[in-house]
Design brief:
Layout lengths: L1 E10 L2 E10 L10 E7 L4 E4 L1 H9 L3 E2 L1 H9 L5
Length: about 80
């Protein structure tokens, strides 16, 4: 099953996340199928590719709970 989830980057105590599409059995920082945006929790800055996200959601990709909150904040999900 494909999931829309966060991949952690950055250094210790300074996280940075990429929003990626990956298989739910893969490791957190494994190789993604597609990268559709990023989120920086330190500055609350984010950028998402709305067309790609809507396309993948149309294919049946399930977002995680945290990603769902971020997408609602960005007015992609309602």
């Amino acid at each position: 099953m494909l999931k829309l989830r966060l991949k952690r980057l950055g250094k210790k105590k300074s996280p940075f996340y990429r929003l990626v599409i990956m298989e739910n059995t893969f490791r957190r920082n494994g190789r993604p199928i597609d990268e559709v945006g990023y989120y920086n929790p330190m500055t609350k800055q984010y950028k998402f590719d709305k067309e790609k996200i809507k396309k993948w959601l149309g294919y049946g990709v399930k977002p995680t709970e945290t990603v769902c909150h971020l997408l609602k904040k960005a007015d992609i999900l309602f």
